[in-house]
Design a protein that fits this description.
CATH topology of one domain: Rossmann fold
CATH class of one domain: Alpha Beta
Distance between the termini: 48 Å
CATH superfamily of one domain: P-loop containing nucleotide triphosphate hydrolases
Largest sheet: 6 strands, mixed
Radius of gyration: 24 Å
Number of helices: 18
Oligomer: single chain
Number of strands: 22
Shape: globular
Structural class: alpha/beta
Strand content: 25-35%
Length: 499
């Protein structure tokens, strides 16, 4: 490994008003190495990424490339210096071809200045061969999976001879197969001499992929170590800076009467004949592979998505199909998988988002009363230990974990009888995960019936009283907590028959 790092973050600091986002952070990125950057939401990781990308400039400190100080005043400066950032949600031009996206701004030209589309396609094809993936350079970017869009972004970076590649939560929306393909590409980039900075909340990915890890907490650098010299337990301890109670604080609660009954729920081509019950104080997990139909089922239960047949009852009362208003009136709350697109209005304030399910009850003579709205928002964000500067700040300014708490606040303030949570801890740090799990356990203790959709098997096994496994739109197994383990759930999810 080179003694002089390819890129070094040297004593950088960045504040936004009175809030110090990053304080005196230093770490190296070496050529031929994949370096993990970890920390709780709000630890300062995103600010570091934006400084490397040229979006923010450090207030103090320097970013060095080959020992040379950089002045990154814009994203164009970062790109010209060979620094590329691959975000969780790529931003391609959907109506242009894959090749056109890769060469955007640097199109090869023919005589009379015309764009040489064949040369662009050849360049793209060569890059995909180098990355070991099969993507048609001539196809439109529209319709590409998130995984393929990320590969296109990586190809674009290579076409610009990027030597430092930052991957910011790249696997959050990928299936297992897609993650493995992305990892193969990352390893090929490392072996080709690039320096990679990998940001993820999934420790199994970090241990499988990375060579070194830098830990941040509260905007400060905690440590940088070779990954083989530090275990996951120690990483977690340093991240949270406090003793972390068990990640899955599930309490044994006597279950009560049936609250939610789903019978024969069907939607053509999506799911068929799904039936289950959930009792008061019970946490029931819907498990299965990506595409099994879990999210579609709970959205149909809530009335967001249509259903062709079946009934949903709450407390014995049949709900009208396709009516979220009827579901809410009956006491159902749905925390959706995509909090940014489906759970929040990002431009609106924290206060407005946290009370959006209660506007009618908070209004007086048809007018929303600001004092009542603020008191309700303050109460619930405090209960959930949400970190923010001011309630009237846009919710977009919050970290992912705190955005999730605002979504939970807006639904818990309705005092639901049934709480449906779809991927409740996706994209949030380990400390916040423990808080969300503790909250779910407390709600179950209070008699709330909980349906949890999760793709994380440890979460399913740690929190559920029963596990319902779906495969290809069918409910194929019901497993009691005492019998649930990774093997039994995965056998059901993949259609394997136990030996």
């Amino acid at each position: 490994m080179d003694q002089v790092p390819l890129l070094a973050v040297a004593s950088v600091a960045k504040s936004f008003g009175a809030v110090a986002a990053v304080r005196d952070v230093s770490f190296p990125l070496h050529a031929g190495e994949i370096h993990a950057l970890v920390g709780e939401n709000g630890a300062g990781k995103s600010t570091i990424v934006k400084m490397l990308a040229g979006v923010h400039r450090p207030d103090t400190g320097r970013i060095l490339l080959d020992g040379r100080p950089l002045e990154l005043a814009s994203p164009a400066d970062a790109i010209s210096e060979g620094i590329a950032v691959i975000y969780q949600e790529p931003t391609l031009f959907p109506d242009l071809s894959v090749a056109e996206n890769i060469v955007m701004g640097r199109q090869p030209r023919r005589s009379l200045g015309r764009v040489d589309h064949r040369a662009a396609s050849r360049l793209a094809a060569d890059l995909f061969v180098r990355l070991g993936v099969a993507i048609d350079p001539g196809r439109p970017a529209r319709g590409l999976s998130i995984a393929d869009q990320q590969i296109v972004e990586i190809a674009k970076a290579l076409s610009r001879e990027a030597r430092v590649i930052v991957m910011d939560e790249p696997t959050a929306a990928l299936s297992g197969v897609e993650v493995e393909r992305l990892f193969a590409v990352a390893r090929s980039l490392r072996d080709g001499g690039a320096a990679l900075l990998f940001i993820s909340h999934r420790f199994e990915e970090i241990t499988a992929l990375c060579d070194r890890v830098t830990i941040m907490r509260d905007g400060r650098h905690v440590s940088t170590d070779p990954l083989d010299a530090i275990g996951v337990d120690e990483i977690v301890r340093r991240m949270v800076g406090r003793p972390l109670d068990t990640l899955f604080p599930k309490r044994e609660v006597p279950v009560g009467d049936v609250v939610l009954e789903v019978e024969g729920l069907s939607r053509a081509g999506v799911f068929r004949d799904v039936s289950f019950q959930v009792r008061a104080g019970e946490i029931v997990a819907l498990a299965g592979l990506v595409g099994a139909g879990r999210s579609e089922v709970v959205q149909a239960v809530f009335g967001v998505d249509p259903r062709d047949g079946g009934t949903v009852r709450v407390g014995g009362t049949v709900l009208r199909a396709g009516s979220p208003r009827a579901a809410m009136a009956a006491g159902i709350a749905l925390v959706p998988e995509d909090r940014r697109q489906q759970g929040l209005v990002l431009e609106a304030s924290i206060e407005r988002n946290a009370t959006s399910t209660r506007w009618r009850s908070l209004a007086r003579f048809g007018l929303l009363v600001g004092g009542a709205e603020r008191r309700s928002a303050a109460e619930w964000t405090a209960r959930l230990q949400t970190k923010y500067a001011r309630l009237d700040d846009p919710v977009a300014r919050l970290s992912g974990g705190n955005q999730q708490k605002v979504v939970l606040a807006k639904w818990l303030s309705t005092a639901p009888r049934v709480l449906i949570v779809d991927e409740p801890t996706r994209g949030i740090d380990v400390g916040t995960k423990a808080e969300v799990h503790r909250l779910l356990s407390d709600l179950a203790t209070d008699g709330v019936a909980i349906v949890m959709v999760s793709s994380e098997l440890p979460e399913v096994l740690g929190m559920a009283d029963r596990v319902l496994v779906m495969r290809e739109g069918h409910l194929v197994a019901e497993i009691a907590r005492s019998d649930a383990n990774e093997e039994s759930v995965m056998r059901a999810a993949t259609g394997q028959v136990a030996a």
